[in-house]
Amino acid sequence: MKSCRSLPLLFAAALTLVPAARSAAAPDAFAVWLKGIYQEGLTRGISKKTLESALTGLTPIKRVISLDRHQPEFTQTFRQYVDQRANAWRIETGRKRLKMHGDLLKAIGKRYGVQPRFIVALWGIETNFGRHTGGFSVLRALATLAFDGRRSAYFRKELFNALVIVDQGHITAAEMKGSWAGAMGQNQFMPSSFLNYAVDHDGDGRRDIWGSLGDVFASAANYLRQAGWRGDQTWGREVKLPPSFDQSLAGLMPKSRPKGCRALAKLSVAKTLPEWQALGIRRLDGSALPARPLKASLALPDGPGGPALLVYQNFRATLSWNCSLSFAAAVGTLADRVGRR
To answer: Are residues 278 and 299 in the same domain?
Structure first.
């Protein structure tokens, strides 16, 4: 390994710091590791200017490791989860935002084939309509998690993606703020999602999911469109199952399952609405299902005996955003309530 003196003086100075590291016996381990990130960044085509501005003085965040190690166990029921996220404040605020930004949302919805109420619902659930986007340095958080070792390969890739974003001029290293796990902006995109889906809707040369609502909305819509969203459909509905219903019929089509999404692994069966109707499934109020021959799958987010959902392709698209049956249903429920007059 080359001496630190081979790096620019500004960056070399950062490597002399003694930050918290994986091993108490090697307090400079992070500095050595960071040197490797700098050198690999150069081979990836990231400019020296960006690497120096982003990595100089960088130190791990102990709080990030604590949060990663002690994530709260998820114990909410489906009903609790949905009611908490599709709450009265979000419904009322969502309606106001839908009206306030109506022209912009309609233009973006038309361009990407995504109904505005779903864009607003995602915005509301992810960051309370841009109010809570996270105050961690994304670069420090990602470097901390990449160095830590528990999921180092994933976060190392995301760290380089974040450096590319800075290098492309979308945001400065200092301004790149987000969650403790590196999710950024009003959409809470990981850096890889930003590079794949973020859009410069306002045409200023930057994909600004932190401050430009046009970019925020268009990026969300672009993500959903690329995930297979269909603008002529809704997400699904909660339904009532007949007594002694065959619970093994709960499922989505395997071909729609994104890699690593275990929630979708439980969902493999798809039938048309009339076919589900023939099996005795009804709306919650007992009335007939729509006659449209849409392909739908049965989801049981709390397992047999709990709430039942008939869901369409747009539910699957939402699962690619966050692979949680309850999350996808909460987005759909909030969208329905925001759009209801």
So the answer is: yes
